[in-house]
Amino acid sequence: MRHIAAMRRVRRFDPEGCPVFITQVCKGRAPVLRGLEELVLAVMHELRRESGYRIYAHVILPDHLHLLVGGGHGFSRFMQSLKLRVVRRAGRDRFWQDRFLDHVIRDEVDLRNHLDYLHYNPVRHGHAATPEGHPYSSFRRYQAHGWYMPGWGHSAPGNIEAIEMD
Q1: Containing domain of residue 151, as a range?
Q2: Helices (H), the chain
């Protein structure tokens, strides 16, 4: 029993100043986020204002979400608040997995790989034919700023093959 209790107290390295890629999955991969996307976005932006965290990129799918955040302190608290507020405002029982996956971005190449992974994820999971076809993603904002050329993601980008975060 001590082992289980110790596992709940995961110590996370909080990389002040470094972006963090986060994957949060719903229990049993249930598609409970379908219809809650606008609520999740509203809570994310509310927490951004309150915490000082920047949300560099996001994608919300029916059974999980990916975020690229940075600039604040305590991203675990950020995620705890996000999960709690969404559940309460949705008026549902807890539906998130207790833990989330995090990856500290190491350099520009790592950043690009994780942004590409995040933005291609709706296509990878069959929720959209193209990245720009998924409405709950930061992809179109990145494309408008010239980060992605027209047609990017209409086939699988080769740089994301080694990333397994969901």
Answers
A1: 12-157
A2: 2-8, 37-51, 75-90, 108-124, 139-144
How crowded is residue 76: how many other Cβ atoms within 10 Å of its Cβ? Answer: 16
Compute the distance between CA of residue 48 and CA of residue 43 in angstroms, rounded to an integer. Answer: 8
**If DSSP codes are grouped into helix, strand and coil, which group holds residue 89?**
helix
Residue 134 in domain? yes
Asked about 136 being catalytic, the answer comes back as: yes
CATH of the domain at 38: 3.30.70.1290
**pLDDT tens digits for range 84-141:** 999 999 998 999 999 999 999 999 999 999 999 999 999 999 999 999 999 999 999 9
**Of 49, 163, 65, nearest in space to 114 by CA:** 163
Catalytic residue among 53, 56, 136, 148: 136
Q: Could you tell me if residue 164 is inside a domain?
A: no
